[in-house]
Amino acid sequence: MISLNSSHLLFQDERNQVLTAYLWIRQVWVDAYLSWDKDAYDGIDTLRIPSSYVWRPDIVLYNNADDQFTGSMETNVVIRYDGQVMWDSPAITKSSCKVDVSYFPFDGQQCRLTFGSWTYNGNQIDLLNGLATGDLTDFVENVEWEVLGMPAKRNVIIYGCCSEPYPDITYTLLLKRRASFYIFNLLLPCIMISFLAPLGFYLPADSGEKVSLGVTVLLALTVFQLLVAESMPPSENVPLIGKYYIATMTMITASTALTIFIMNIHHCGPGAKPVPKWAKKFILQYMARLFFVYEVGESCKSPKRQVGHLPTVQVVSGRAAKEEQKAQMTEENSDATCQEKSPQQGLLPRRVSISSGQQDWKETGTCANLECGRDGQQHQVCATSLCLCHHNSLLRDVEYIANCFRDQKAAQKRSGEWKKVAKVMDRIFMWIFFVMVFFMSMLIMGKAI
Fold it and tell me: How far apart are CA 275 and CA 419, in angstroms?
């Protein structure tokens, strides 16, 4: 009969899949050659002698993973007068334990300790378990693992080499990981870093740090991924936290690629094509209102600002100039008081008409008040002709400047529309990635509950 008392769980080497435990092993058997009549020996009913002086069953740990393969400590045995021998020996065992890290760090493990005779079969030694479970009364709590129980089971196995049955006692150590250490050191930093990835879309494109933020977050997650990989055994089962890291890194890689695409749209120059009509209607109108993207000085309640029309310059020439000259000649003939022409009439400007939006104004120079006559009185002198020698080139320059200004405003409008398209796309992807990070975080935290 064998019973097990677990005192302390020293170490669980997950990478090498080795469980190290400090156990008290109690073995009880009956030896008919070691019995006596206690009345014949003054009532002596028990003896304590070194275990090496008596026969001992060769009970070993089948799944031993110790390279030195050391057995139990050489302690005394207690012999009763009826031939019952009890041997309590402490032992530090290293056993192989198959580790399943699929739900790391919220996982639980089942490590088996199988004891049996190495040379005696079931016909020679009948191996029984003394207790239904291992005794955990004196167990010292482990900082990383919580022991839920240690049930015992007797198995009878017939191996291929032999026809005799071989019984064994298997103790299953039920372990549950204490996940607080991994939550505060691996999981929460990853979640907080993951929420920085969507904020990269909120960062202004002109700052020049959008791509740098994504790359920095990606490198930080890579460091955490390496820390997890160093402590996990090489297995086909990817840990839960590893899946979360991979999903987050994939999301950040996608966000960085989208950031590069959006920055390319933002920096469309004046030579870019106009924004398509469907993009103006769908992105600049509906999506911009949905995600509260407005221009500077514009709010959700105020209407959209209308860009006023640029002033146009019109040069009156040709037939209109001839009509002007005829009108001046008529005025000159109707004035009987004019005796001589004004010396400054050649400097009078030609008619220029400038229309701007809602108002029109005209500048006409046809008459001048000059002193004429012998009596010293002032008379109104009317010009007979207009000098257009300098005004033609001046008006051409004004018209060229106005056209350049008009083209510049149109290019600025196209560039502003593309920048607003990029800003709306930034907001859209920011909220999409926020929702993705939130649901992934809730999914992995739900495993801990």
Answer: 10
> Across the chain, which distance is largest between two alpha carbons, in Å?
178
Per residue in 273-327, pLDDT (tens digit) is: 777 788 777 777 777 777 777 665 454 444 445 444 444 444 444 444 454 455 4
Burial of residue 204 (CB within 10 Å: 0-12, 13-18, 19+) is: exposed
Nearest C-alpha neighbor of 391 from the set 342, 352, 341, 363: 352
How far apart are the C-alpha atoms of 305 and 426, rounded to whole Å? Answer: 23
**Tens-digit pLDDT profile for residues 262-278:** 888 877 766 667 777 88
Instruction: Label residue 31 exposed, middle or buried (CB < 10 Å: 0-12, 13-18, 19+).
Output: middle
The residues, any chain, with a CB within 8 Å of residue 344's CB and separated by 6 or more, are: 368, 370
Question: For the packed helices 240-266 and 391-446, what is the interaxial angle rounded to 10 degrees?
Answer: 170
| pLDDT tens per residue, range 112-139 | 999 998 888 888 888 888 888 888 888 8
Q: pLDDT tens digits for 128-167?
A: 888 888 888 888 888 888 889 899 999 998 888 888 899 9
pLDDT of residue 295: 63
Query: Who contacts 237 (Cβ-Cβ below 8 Å, separation ≥6)?
Result: 100, 101, 102
φ, ψ of residue 117 in degrees (nearest 5) = -75, 145
Residue 130's contacts (CB-CB under 8 Å, 6 or more residues apart) are: 1, 2, 3, 26, 28
Of residues 21 and 341, more confidently modeled: 21
What CA dihedral angle connects 408, 412, 413 and 415, to 10 degrees? 140
Q: Please tell me the distance from the alpha carbon of residue 266 to that of residue 415, in angstroms, as a whole number.
A: 8
